[in-house]
Amino acid sequence: MHPVARPPRPVLLDLLMATMDSMSTWSSAAGDRERGMAWRDAVTRRMIVAGRYVAYDDLVIAAAGELHLPPDAPDRLRDAWTDMERWPDAESLESVDVPYAFVTNSSRKLARVAVDQSRLRPVFTLSAEEAGWYKPHPEIYRLACDRLGIDARETRFVAGAPYDARGAARAGLRSVLVARRPVESPFPDEIPVVSSLEEALAGL
To answer: Which of 46, 61, 177, 193 has the most neighbouring CB atoms within 10 Å?
Structure first.
């Protein structure tokens, strides 16, 4: 008897770092890259502490105040979001033979804007607002797996930030990190670190 072919396994991806160049968006709104990355990181710290979803805009405004950014910086960020571009290697998603979906730490509205800007066709996009949890809480990854109808242990998650890669791994997913920024701390051996989406998607 011929072996039965296994159906293709869906893949989950982070939207705003692995797929989209949100770093340029934050940098544009903040006025330069250093302040933009500090602002983004301050928002991420608040997400990690919160766990459960609280209004994304509130975190953005609070972090801008912490860093003494101009009062109109959050408005500039919302405006810049509509010009967000995908990473050049995100083109590889146009030819993958497996279903894929996005998981993102943002509001529903901003998630929709980013997906529209990506020109990609995910099966779905799960925002933190919809899930009720921020990454890296395990629940948001599990909800995404449930929606795909696949066990977490059989799901590859492509992260664009170390905290996200670790969170997915703790939730039981097969995590891989696309290093959009330098990885400064030692990384768990079980989480591959690659330099492009092509590498992250290889072997699906």
So the answer is: 177
